[in-house]
């Protein structure tokens, strides 16, 4: 007892010499059982103060639908582990160099503090810290909790006031946790340099091993790094590596001095090279195998209020939350999309192809792929944005969707009661007869009698909903849009989930049905998935389950709504099925199971599309030049090693879609479309074809050519 009291006396004297009596007598003389507090501490009101310990920033792990890790998000690279997952030699090394009496003292090491205060008294400042591991843990908590530069500066301030505050917190920590718990917390919060927070991240970053597998030399290196991790950061340069090596040897000498290792073991470890492997930090979307899908997930979390009311909250949730996010990505379907694109379009080509696959009835995005890699290297033609998605999910302005939009006019006609074989005669060119022949959704007259819509193939004659769709006849669809109403057509498109890729309102011109609005594959695929689900539209989803750091699970269900009469969707699917057998995709062919779809090519082949669906899977493929589709049209181009005079929807997008579906749905039982209600949609109503001496059931359908020519009404392309 006497020696303990004399230690306190010496501490008080040293503190008085430094001019800070409170710091000296504020502490328990020793820790553990039988702790003795200086009575004066009660007079000064120095008591333990509860430390707020916010959860540490933990990396979030992204999983595909099969449970495979595909990406990570983090603000601080950290992987927390339990103490039994840390090699014993690592525990010994850190205690030896930082606080060798850790298991013997309380919140403060009296002897260490006496030495520090005595040194400080003669130096005129804080030359020595004398901090215990508990105090260091407190300091790290305060630093990690600081949200402003001022708060961080206060956490690092070289003052006795700050030190006294830390000690109050340390006293409370010692009362709350066991020594093993404190050591575990310290090892997980400590910064080791090279961007590694916590011993597990440091072990992987420095040496490519887990903390449980650290050797003596490696453990001593990490133990030496915590004192000044910036000065000994081996990732910075050779000077820092040299300092770290020297610091490692200091740790080894200290371990030998304390007889934790033998002199021979210390010498053998000191003879080893530093061994810094600079293992890359497992990163975000740029390092992911599936960068475009990863970007979609990241932006979905950061923008969706479901994951937090404020942007700051959502960011912390994703980057600090230590979450495990299960997603909808199907690795088999992803591979199918990637291989199909690679077969037809090279990464070195100027145009870029992109594809999205979506499950009808859930909105689950199963795959997102593009012909180019994601990155910022322009020389390698890498994509710096998410070409598969809209701007809200990291994408750009998108590409005009061409004749894939004719489907929305077709659906509107079916909603209004038109029959499959109902139609009217069209010519090779069409002009709005008067300004009021087309009205936008504000009721404004937007018909343009000066603009002529033409057919690339130059054909005309009597067209029905079926034959006009199969041939993709521009003049037929503009007249059909006039008949059923431009605004109603736009409302149908919106009901099916259509919105511009750039987030701006849809442009409402008479050429709406010809696809003059810029789209992204996810949006178009989802609209066609709505037809595959018999009119049930679902919000595109990428997250199915989130497990937080404590193991609490939150499941996410599809967000769906019936937006279309199922029988109307059945009739549309029936007509669009003919595109493969009697229309623009007849030269490409089907996929050996019920499927429907629509080709799309914009004015003068600026971009080309194909969108199609089965009851099990929908997909959309686009191709265009990201440097400006209108200025770099798909005419006289070499793509995928093959020269193309003109690229249409059935030239490249259609084959990509077909190859994707064949592989993606392999092994999946085919699901049939629901048959058309012939009582409702059979016959030709009031629009029967004129009698002909030699009726032609297929109406001389051709393939490949489609869409409109003429002015683009200022809507442009990419």
TrEMBL record:
Check the record and name the InterPro entries matching this protein: Beta-lactam/transpept-like (IPR012338), Glyco_trans_51 (IPR001264), Glycosyltr_51/Transpeptidase (IPR050396), Lysozyme-like_dom_sf (IPR023346), PBP_transglycosylase (IPR036950), PCN-bd_Tpept (IPR001460)
Ranges of residues in domain Glycosyl transferase family: 68-255
* Region of interest (Disordered), residue spans: 684-718
Per the UniProt record, one Pfam family is: Transpeptidase
Q: Which UniProt keywords apply?
A: Carboxypeptidase, Glycosyltransferase, Hydrolase, Multifunctional enzyme, Protease, Transferase
Q: Which reaction does it catalyse?
A: Preferential cleavage: (Ac)2-L-Lys-D-Ala-|-D-Ala. Also transpeptidation of peptidyl-alanyl moieties that are N-acyl substituents of D-alanine; [GlcNAc-(1->4)-Mur2Ac(oyl-L-Ala-gamma-D-Glu-L-Lys-D-Ala-D-Ala)](n)-di-trans,octa-cis-undecaprenyl diphosphate + beta-D-GlcNAc-(1->4)-Mur2Ac(oyl-L-Ala-gamma-D-Glu-L-Lys-D-Ala-D-Ala)-di-trans,octa-cis-undecaprenyl diphosphate = [GlcNAc-(1->4)-Mur2Ac(oyl-L-Ala-gamma-D-Glu-L-Lys-D-Ala-D-Ala)](n+1)-di-trans,octa-cis-undecaprenyl diphosphate + di-trans,octa-cis-undecaprenyl diphosphate + H(+)
> For the Penicillin-binding protein transpeptidase domain, which residue ranges apply?
357-628
Bias kind Acidic residues: ranges = 695-709
How is this protein named in the record?
Transglycosylase domain-containing protein
Spell out where the chain crosses the membrane.
none
């Amino acid at each position: 007892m006497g020696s303990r009291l004399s230690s306190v006396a010496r501490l008080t004297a040293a503190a008085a010499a430094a001019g800070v009596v409170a710091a000296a007598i504020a502490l328990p003389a020793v820790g553990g059982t039988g702790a003795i507090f200086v009575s004066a501490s009660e007079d000064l009101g120095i008591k333990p103060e509860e430390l707020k310990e916010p959860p540490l920033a933990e990396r979030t792990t992204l999983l595909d639908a099969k449970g495979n890790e595909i990406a990570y998000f983090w603000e601080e690279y950290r992987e927390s582990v339990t103490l039994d997952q840390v090699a014993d030699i690592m525990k010994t090394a850190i205690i030896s160099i930082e606080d060798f009496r850790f298991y013997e003292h309380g919140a403060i090491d009296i002897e260490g503090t006496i030495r520090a205060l005595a040194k400080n008294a003669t130096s005129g400042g804080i030359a020595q810290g004398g901090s215990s591991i508990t105090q260091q843990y407190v300091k790290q908590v305060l630093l990690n909790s600081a949200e402003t530069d001022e708060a961080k500066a206060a956490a690092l301030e070289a003052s006795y006031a700050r030190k006294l505050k830390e000690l109050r917190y340390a006293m409370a920590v010692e009362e709350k946790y066991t020594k093993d718990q404190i050591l575990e917390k310290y090892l997980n919060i400590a910064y080791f340099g090279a961007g590694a927070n916590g011993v597990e991240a440091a072990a992987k970053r420095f040496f490519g091993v887990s903390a449980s597998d650290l050797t003596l030399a490696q453990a001593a290196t990490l133990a030496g790094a915590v004192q000044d991790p910036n000065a000994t950061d081996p990732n910075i340069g050779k000077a820092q590596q040299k300092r770290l090596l020297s610091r490692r040897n200091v740790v080894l000498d200290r371990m030998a001095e304390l007889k934790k290792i033998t002199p021979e073991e210390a010498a053998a470890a000191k003879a080893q090279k530093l061994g810094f492997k600079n293992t890359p930090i497992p990163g975000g979307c740029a390092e992911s195998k599936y960068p475009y899908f990863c970007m979609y997930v990241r932006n979905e979390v950061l923008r969706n209020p479901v994951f937090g009311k404020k942007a700051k909250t959502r960011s912390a949730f994703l980057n600090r939350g230590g979450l495990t996010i299960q997603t909808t990505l199907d690795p088999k379907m992803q591979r199918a999309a990637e291989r199909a694109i690679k077969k037809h379009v090279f990464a070195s080509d100027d145009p870029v192809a992109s594809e999205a696959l979506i499950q009808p009835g859930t909105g689950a995005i199963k795959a997102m792929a593009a012909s180019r890699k994601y990155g910022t290297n322009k020389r390698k033609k890498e994509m710096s944005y998410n070409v598969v998605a809209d701007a809200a999910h990291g994408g750009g302005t998108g590409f005009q969707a061409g004749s894939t939009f004719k489907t929305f006019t077709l659906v509107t006609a079916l909603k209004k009661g038109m029959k499959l074989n109902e139609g009217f005669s069209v010519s090779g060119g069409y002009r709005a007869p008067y300004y009021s022949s087309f009205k936008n959704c504000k009721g404004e007259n937007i018909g343009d009698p000066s603009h002529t819509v033409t057919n690339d193939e130059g054909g005309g004659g009597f067209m029905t909903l079926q034959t006009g769709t199969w041939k993709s006849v521009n003049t037929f669809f503009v007249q059909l849009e006039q008949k059923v109403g431009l605004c109603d057509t736009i409302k149908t498109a919106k009901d099916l989930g259509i919105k511009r890729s750039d987030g701006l309102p849809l442009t409402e011109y008479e050429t709406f049905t010809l696809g003059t609005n810029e789209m992204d594959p996810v949006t178009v695929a989802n609209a066609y998935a709505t037809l595959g689900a018999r009119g049930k539209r679902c919000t595109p989803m990428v997250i199915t389950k989130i497990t937080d750091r404590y193991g609490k699970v939150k499941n996410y269900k599809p967000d769906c709504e019936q937006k279309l009469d199922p029988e109307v969707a059945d009739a549309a699917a029936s007509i669009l099925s003919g595109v493969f057998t009697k229309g623009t995709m007849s030269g490409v062919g089907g996929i050996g199971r019920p499927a429907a779809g629509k080709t799309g090519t914009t004015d003068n082949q600026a971009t080309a599309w194909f969108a199609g669906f089965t009851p099990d899977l929908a997909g959309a493929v686009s191709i265009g030049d990201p440097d400006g589709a209108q200025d770099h049209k798909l005419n006289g181009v070499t793509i995928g090693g093959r020269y193309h005079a003109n690229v249409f929807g059935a030239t490249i997008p259609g084959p990509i879609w077909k190859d994707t579906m064949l592989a993606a749905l392999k092994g999946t039982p085919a699901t049939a479309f629901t048959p058309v209600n012939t009582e409702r949609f059979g016959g030709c109503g009031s629009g029967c074809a004129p009698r002909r001496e030699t009726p032609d059931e297929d109406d001389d359908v051709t393939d490949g050519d489609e869409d409109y020519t003429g002015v683009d009404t200022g809507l442009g392309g990419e």
